[in-house]
Amino acid sequence: MPVALDCLPCLLRQAISVVKKITGDSGRQAVLLQSLLQQASSLDLSLPPPEIARQMHQLLQQQTGEADLYREENRRQNAMALALYPEIHRRVQASEDPLELALRLAIAGNVIDCGVSDEISELEVAAALEKALREPIKGDLTAFRQAIHSARQILYLADNAGEIVFDRLLMEQIGFGKITLAVRGREILNDATRTDAEAAGLDQLVTLIDNGSGVPGTLLADCSTGFRERFAAAELIISKGQGNFETLCGSSSKVFFLFKVKCEVIARRAGMP
Amino acid sequence: MPVALDCLPCLLRQAISVVKKITGDSGRQAVLLQSLLQQASSLDLSLPPPEIARQMHQLLQQQTGEADLYREENRRQNAMALALYPEIHRRVQASEDPLELALRLAIAGNVIDCGVSDEISELEVAAALEKALREPIKGDLTAFRQAIHSARQILYLADNAGEIVFDRLLMEQIGFGKITLAVRGREILNDATRTDAEAAGLDQLVTLIDNGSGVPGTLLADCSTGFRERFAAAELIISKGQGNFETLCGSSSKVFFLFKVKCEVIARRAGMP
Question: I need a labelling partner for A234 at 20 to 30 A (CA). Which of A223, A267, B115, B188 fits?
């Protein structure tokens, strides 16, 4: 989907939070901001929001020489999720419907998103998990159940660090053996890369690939040929997060999108509050 | 105060809401947005937020030839406030402390601000008025009482249409005869101009002037010489709204600022939640 006008203040806010992460010096912040606005003035409004986010972050990365501004953040979020893991894993095991609970928890894990808020606390994650158990899900759970049951191979598109630990619960219910897990090809925001999949222990359990791209979504045109081939050949795709939705909605009928609605633009698009 | 990094997404959001008001055509919206971003790329970050807002709106006004994009909005907000006026006027008259109640209601009226939200409803205004009766006020009410009592002439800087009707309550308690009411010199957002002061019946009650400027605040360098002389000579100044605070804070010790805190940046600056 092309970027909406209402996405731009949000993308700018996101980039400004990266600027503040880079430097506390107001003069240097101003220089980085001007370069962002300069870039934005020739923005291609047909692009999806995650590609614009990538361009903004690439510019900041070039100017600072720092490839992974969220390394510490990601480490913290993986650790936080891993600390919760044993308990929620037990709850899934003990549940009457482990698949539904794991699905709900995987969606809840999508609350960990530095694109929306930099400062997600353990308390907020815990609250999101509790809420996830009761909230309505838009979509056909029975169709999802049938689709994952009958598919022999499933391509699972990860979203963020931390969140990927919650995805592990769902992958376990689906069956690790069926899963090819795709992470981002380069560091961008707090999106999950190979490092995060390894932190979640998933490299030992599923087939792990990366998509060759540094877009915080799945912009097929920017992905590696290898990934595009996997995508085209996939029997079934599970896509996590808003960024993947923004770049893939309408692309294929074999995708289930699992994410939390985090803004008005996507709420309208998804028909959810 | 110079614009903060965090102000920019908000200023952009504000300008985008004006763009949407101008046209529903997405192609034309994109053209206007590009011109805004082009202008923003050479932004002077030493300017206060209201001056940046003015520059953005001036650009949009130039491109559309429409000087007053908020005419209907202002009319609606004045009418809404005037409909509430008789009842709140009675409540002030019947109050044990009419000055404090009028002061609280004048502050509550500051909730009507198209810079923050375009769609303020009667219900929201009514809720803000009720809340205003109980909320803490930062500042020395006794000092305010004494200052307005001893001042012979008071310069009252209005903020928005609609809100100006609530200001009338406070001006009545102070004594209309003492008041010189200053409105904006040109239409900008839903800021009050002479038209709105007249709609509130204030032209018949106080000395009405305009500041000669189209900034949604009081940027002295942009105001007329006549206004600047009045400002310098004023015994006491009552300044309404965040825009006036952003442009005048620190400018003079004889100013009382009456406004609702509407964002994080101002909350930090004012030391209020």
Answer: A267
